[in-house]
């Protein structure tokens, strides 16, 4: 049981770190063109220097929603990690990790909403991008989506042990 808890803890910390990186770094979409490698994220568009992300007025609300849900997913993931540590030492057997699992599943839902909106509204629709592909931040966000779901379910299953 101790090895399982330690493994879940390590995966949870890795998920928090990957969420930070995927939200902060500006490599959600990448394009190699005559201008060089251009990457765009949730905040900036970078070539050799970074500038404000050009977004049309009809896509601005979608981008703000993606930004908000990614930030919420980080907050919920950190709260779930703190709850895990607190509940590990304070609650009796049989009542542990119920809240941690619920908060982690809320984090999972926030990631799902953010990445789905980004996929629907922004994939391949960037200015100056002729042959775009997804960057590592987009892939990390989907990996965090999978990890947060698995961790949330494991917390709910572990509450009975």
Automatic annotation (TrEMBL):
Major site of localization recorded for this protein: membrane
Origin superkingdom: Eukaryota
One Pfam family named in its UniProt record: PMP22_Claudin
Transferase is among the record's keywords: no
Transmembrane residue ranges: 7-29, 65-85, 97-118, 138-158
Membrane topology field: Multi-pass membrane protein
Keyword Ribosomal protein: no
Subcellular location: Membrane
InterPro entries recorded: PMP-22/EMP/MP20-like, PMP22/EMP/MP20/Claudin, PMP22_EMP_MP20
PROSITE patterns documented for this protein: PMP22_1, PMP22_2
Keywords: Glycoprotein, Membrane, Transmembrane, Transmembrane helix
Gene Ontology CC entries for this record: plasma membrane
Family designation: Belongs to the PMP-22/EMP/MP20 family.
Protein's recorded name: Epithelial membrane protein 1
């Amino acid at each position: 049981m101790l090895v399982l808890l330690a493994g879940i803890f390590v995966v949870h910390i890795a998920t928090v770190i990957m969420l930070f990186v995927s939200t902060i770094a500006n490599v959600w979409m990448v394009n190699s063109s005559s201008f060089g490698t251009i990457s765009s994220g949730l905040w900036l568009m970078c070539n050799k220097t970074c500038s404000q992300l050009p977004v049309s007025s009809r896509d601005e609300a979608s981008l703000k929603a993606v930004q908000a849900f990614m930030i919420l997913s980080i907050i919920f993931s950190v709260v779930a990690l703190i709850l895990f540590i607190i509940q590990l030492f304070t609650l009796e057997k049989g009542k542990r990790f119920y809240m941690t699992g619920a908060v982690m599943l809320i984090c999972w839902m926030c990631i799902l909403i953010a990445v789905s909106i980004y996929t629907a509204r922004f994939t391949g629709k960037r200015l100056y991008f002729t042959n775009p592909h997804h960057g590592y931040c987009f892939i990390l966000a989907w990996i965090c989506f999978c990890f947060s779901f698995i961790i949330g379910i494991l917390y709910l299953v572990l509450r009975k042990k």
